[in-house]
Design a protein that fits this description.
Elements lengths: L1 E10 L2 E7 L4 E5 L6 H13 L18 E10 L2 E10 L2 E6 L2 E3 L11 E4 L5 H4 L2 H15 L1 H21 L4 H44 L6 E5 L7 H13 L2 H7 L11 E5 L2 E2 H4 L2 H23 L4 E5 L7 H10 L5 E5 L3 H4 L5 E4 L8
Helix pairs in contact: 3-4, 4-5, 5-6, 5-9
């Protein structure tokens, strides 16, 4: 997968700009707060339909404007792709090769991208919701059935949680099995695909981590053991778990078990990374997971994703910078930094200077 060009209009701090990308390494450089990350964010947004930074799409619209427009031309193993997005206060509209995309699920799987920034340390340091978010965004790009199951699961879960708050307990007990049957059907799909994904991720992340640390540290990733078995087995196990905990859920007022409560175990040299890893260890572990994600995309889709590295080099020591540059050779990489010459180490790159929301030509 290769992004050829990106066009922005009223996106973040860009009035109107076009950016040309090449194969291999593309370096967006310039002073802080000029728009480098905004440009990288736009690429990821077109690939996934979500921003790695903004919670609401309307935050992407340039201040004082009513509408943001962005588009990209790309080329992959199945030919050329043109994707556009228009964002307003009231909603958004995507088009693929000129045809309107009516379902959010259809945005996914056209362009693939992996995004890493210093904020991705949350993947290790923060609570389980960050690790679930990582799994959801990554697996959804690769599996439309997963994305559909996730959306439907969340809808049913909301209905079940609303039911648990009712005062009429007889109605609650009578209705819960009906909701649970639906919930567990989608939960089983989510749990099975997450387990399969982590099964691929773990050895690849361990290998990437060993490479970045010259074998000095061992990274181990594992899912919660309760989600083993086929989808049918998982569906029955989850249904039984929910059925046995009606009193608990009614007392709490929410559903306390299921994939929305999942987590991943992450260890470095046998020690829980979430609680005891240093800042440097955390950074390297998170980066290793992202590099593993890149390899999974290649294995499952047949081509490498666009790798976006936002302000990563400033957070790494010199040996690991060089290792990262070596590791990403052959990928189309979009890297943001303040000084291009400090991160290239003799490597050829397409250098793009960003100043005040514009490409300085």
């Amino acid at each position: 997968m290769r992004i050829k060009n990106l066009n922005l209009k009223n996106f973040r701090n860009y009035a109107e700009e076009s950016v040309e990308f090449k194969d291999g390494l593309n370096v967006l450089f310039g002073k802080n707060a000029q728009g480098k990350t905004n440009c990288a964010e736009a690429v990821f947004y077109l690939c996934t339909g979500v921003s790695p930074r903004a919670k609401r799409d309307k935050q992407l619209i340039r201040q004082g404007e009513q509408k943001a427009e962005l588009s990209a031309s790309a080329e992959g193993r199945y030919g050329k792709i043109e994707i556009t997005a228009a964002i307003t206060e009231s909603g958004r509209e995507f088009k693929l090769n000129g045809n309107k995309i009516t379902k959010s699920a259809d945005i996914l799987g056209n362009l693939f991208s992996v995004f890493f920034s210093p904020h991705e340390l949350r993947l290790i340091q923060d609570g389980p919701d960050e690790r679930r978010r990582f799994l959801n965004v990554s697996i959804s790009q690769l599996s439309r059935p997963y994305y559909v199951a996730l959306c439907r699961y969340n809808n049913v879960l909301e209905q079940r949680n609303n039911l648990l708050k009712l005062r009429d307990l007889d109605a609650v007990y009578d209705s819960l099995p009906v909701w649970d049957e639906q919930l567990c059907k989608y939960a089983a799909v989510i749990a099975r695909k997450r387990a399969d994904y982590i099964g691929m991720l773990a050895p690849l992340a361990a290998e990437a981590h060993s490479f970045l640390t010259d074998g000095g540290e061992e990274l181990k990733i594992s899912p919660e053991k309760k989600y083993k078995g086929s989808e049918a087995e998982l569906e029955k196990r989850l249904f039984d778990e929910l059925s046995n905990n009606y009193d608990r859920d009614i007392r709490l007022g929410y559903t306390a078990s299921g994939p929305h409560r999942d987590d991943i175990d992450i260890e470095i040299n046998g020690i829980d990374a979430k609680n005891f890893a240093s800042q440097g260890q955390t950074r390297t572990a998170a980066l290793s997971i992202k590099l593993a994600e890149v390899e999974i995309f290649k294995e499952l889709s047949g081509e490498y994703p666009v790798l976006i590295l936002d302000d990563v080099m400033s957070e790494l020591d010199l040996p690991r910078r060089k290792k990262l540059v070596e590791r990403t050779s052959g990928l189309q990489t979009i890297l943001t930094c303040t000084h291009a010459e400090r991160v290239l180490y003799g490597k050829e790159a397409n250098k793009i200077k960003i100043e005040g929301g514009a490409v300085k030509r």
